[in-house]
């Protein structure tokens, strides 16, 4: 502690800016055309930044850390609170695994040099969103995340990728514009721009302007919901994910969408406050939109044959579980929302990375990769499809998995919610969605391991999965289960924050 004491004031800034600077520096790294040099550099930076994040979590407290002050009321600042600690750890763990997976995957999806420049930088920007102490800082990093992830989507530079990138940019900017409008209103009607449990609205100023602030809050949440894939700003997700390289798809679906969720959580619980929204049309409208998104995403995934598009539509559905639970404005609902973020990130990244392995080994060179092409692939890639199966069970919400515990708390929050029929209707939609989820994921697993009588078993060749691909799959699938078996410690970690937000 004594050795690190002089560095404590700047320590929280390092996990944010170090990977951004390192990503830019990668442009000038003399690799001599050797990928191994680049891999060592990127791996070292990723591991070091993960270690820095752990140091921040362990050593720092929740004090406000100001990077620069723009005006008397506006500043760029960070605060490492409970929410930031949990999700920065989640981001660092998954990002490290996906990075090492990328080293192998990108051998067949060049150019990897450009990819890692933006991939490293996005890591730091996402940590910046999580650590943001006020709306200005969050919005700045939120916008940076959009522009830094565009090259990841456009990696192949094919026509489909370019069209998907333009669509992603349009939806992201549309959402960000709505969120920017909210920024000005919160600046005028709030006592501070710093995220404060329970909200920052000055009720003396809001008096007579309640409907205005409710409308502004709705538009702000809708804007941030674009990154989370919520209807009506959801269409970029099933378009962008299939054309992006699998490592990019994994973090876009598992983590980048959570950037939008974190922004929505900050607005609801740290700027507006649950008391201001409870029972209003904003709460009911967002619950209704979340349930519509859950059902729409599940139905589209059920009917979709393209493998990565099916998983992407699943993300549209599953991320809105968080929005639904968050907007119940109950302790149980918020607990379920936070657990769902963790469980979904683990399982969905595992699904995408598993799909990437299948494409890498068995569907290489094909323009499209359909679910019905995976018949018998479990015989060739048993580890991969076993991990896919475990992650699928968590996404469905079967007992002992993280997805089950999260959905249990969501349902409990819905029953005790003042949302009335919206809460009860939510439980019905969750059950229907679970059945649809089983309908679009389990047939893939069954066909992979039990291809039927017409399958020629003599052609099966057991494929060797490199450790850089195998280990991330094993750890992510294990994480999806451990998030359920050891949900207690996570709930205990969230409990102090939830007690503060709901005042006991």
Which terms would index this structure?
two-stranded antiparallel ribbon; single chain; 504 residues; mainly alpha
Quick structural overview:
This protein has 20 helices and 2 strands.
Task: Give an overview in words.
It is built from 20 helices and 2 strands. It has 504 residues and is mainly α. A two-stranded antiparallel sheet has the order 1-2. The relative contact order is 0.09.
Calculate the terminal CA-CA distance, rounded to whole Å. 34 Å
Mean pLDDT: 88
- What is the strand arrangement across the widest sheet? 1-2
The geometry reads as globular
Strand fraction band?
under 5%
**Percentage of residues in helical conformation:** over 70%
Radius of gyration of CA atoms, rounded to a whole number: 22 Å
List the helices and strands and how they pair.
Elements lengths: L13 H12 L9 H25 L5 E5 L5 E4 L3 H24 L6 H20 L3 H19 L5 H31 L13 H4 L3 H15 L11 H8 L2 H27 L1 H4 L3 H23 L3 H21 L3 H31 L15 H4 L1 H15 L5 H14 L5 H29 L17 H19 L1 H15 L3
Helix pairs in contact: 1-2, 1-4, 2-3, 2-4, 3-4, 3-10, 3-14, 3-19, 4-5, 4-10, 5-6, 5-10, 6-8, 6-9, 8-10, 9-10, 9-13, 10-13, 10-14, 12-13, 12-18, 13-14, 13-18, 14-16, 14-17, 14-19, 14-20, 16-18, 16-19, 17-18, 17-19
